[in-house]
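Phosphoesterase (Biomaibacter acetigenes), 182 aa
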Amino acid sequence: MKIGIMSDTHGSLTAFQKVLDAFGPCDFILHAGDVLYHGPRNPLPDGYNPRELAEAINRLEVPFIAAAGNCDAPIDQVLICVPIQSPYALFCTNKFRVLVNHGHEKSEEELLGLSAKWGINILVTGHTHVKRLEKKNGIIMVNPGSCALPKDGIPSAAVMDEREIKLINIENKNVIETSLLV
């Protein structure tokens, strides 16, 4: 099973298409929030087209599971036919429990505490626009960074299978960092 993980598209159809291309075929796509709107503090990303992005999401042939971010609004649900879950999206495989949360309302310690309580193996967050992959208190923490407005200069996403999670540069498809899951 291959799972694509992204965050902070902020309405960029261009970034979304680059992520899908970098993922290749996936069984599921997880999105950690800030799907359509760029937010008042962010610049317009290249390829900003929230309506077309919503239509591209609706045309996906794989399940798209999203947690709401601070720039997501209830009106977005009028355009996107899959639920944007708030504040958490839970995804389970035969081997892992994955909690997706944008990361803007609770501290890392609170999210790790909830993850431990709920038997979560992998915590996916977004919000910071900075990629991160580390293990803390037995829980793999992954922030795929932002594919549209990266604050660390590299537009990125992540790919996960039963063995590992990889952070990838969506421009050249190079692996930035890998963490084994087994």
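Residues 3-180 form a domain with the Purple Acid Phosphatase; chain A, domain 2 fold (CATH 3.60.21.10). Helices lie at 13-23, 50-59, 76-79, 108-117. ok done for today
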